[in-house]
Amino acid sequence: MAPITLELIHRWANIIKSKPTIIKDTFAYGSYTHLTNLLNNILEINHKPDISKSWFQGFHFLYNNQLNLKLGSDGYDNYQAPVNEQGEQLYLRRLWARGELDFYKTPQVDSPVEVTESLKSVRVIDETVLVSILRNFTSDSQELLRESRTLTYTNELYTANENFHKLDKEDTRDEGPTFHISSVDLLKYSMLTYNLHKIHIDANYCRSIEDLPNVIVHGPLQVTLLLYYFAIKHPELTPKNFRYRTYAPIFINDEVTIQIDPISEHEFRLGLFNKESGKVYIQGKLSSTTTTL
């Protein structure tokens, strides 16, 4: 690894901030179908979502993804990762930390979709860097969705945290289905999203390099599972905003339960947790509006 200084991080951030990235794609029916089948298989249900509402359920994660032109040692594209002047990576590991989604509309099938990615912020905490990227999706100049995602970059290897975040006592635990995610599920999602990050597909890499006990579930897949099941349970509501953060990794075959707790008529707390221990993997607050026909 290259030596890291605060000056080096700031210099990299200024370069990235001055060069927004534009990625073009097409909203294709095939990817929608494949993801629907995957989600139904994980949740053990038979549901076909309205494709015109799919971008309110996390399906946007399928499109306008990284081009995988400059891969890091972990297999993921380094185009937004902190690097030095020679393009050498500064951090061994990257983790999905938090995000926010503002929903506007779903594009027409087979229509062009363009995303403009720009650096929102860089925060240095001790030996760790949090990088937030803003992604604006448009189609024919119409705004579709706005996403903010934050990744944590670190050289610290994974260690299990026994003081994990638990469900608050006031949570009503309005439980959805309990399920397990397999390595095959992760491989399918990685293929659908053009994601070569080894922590999702290579168990040997996880154990030998990052000290992870096994491969872990993608952050976007967790978000999609929450939004997908919310749409099934509350078809009368349309999401407006979802802000979330991750607390612990989900490993393959972990027992996971969906939490959808009402806060008010149009606000809900969504999360994934382990029913036995109360461990929270991911949790966030969703605001919605009444669906208009």
From TrEMBL:
Q: Tell me the GO molecular function terms.
A: (3R)-hydroxyacyl-[acyl-carrier-protein] dehydratase activity
Q: Spell out the GO cellular component terms annotated for this protein, sorted alphabetically and separated by semicolons.
A: mitochondrion
Name the chain's protein.
Hydroxyacyl-thioester dehydratase type 2, mitochondrial
Q: Which organism is it from?
A: Candida viswanathii
Q: Which gene encodes it?
A: HTD2_1
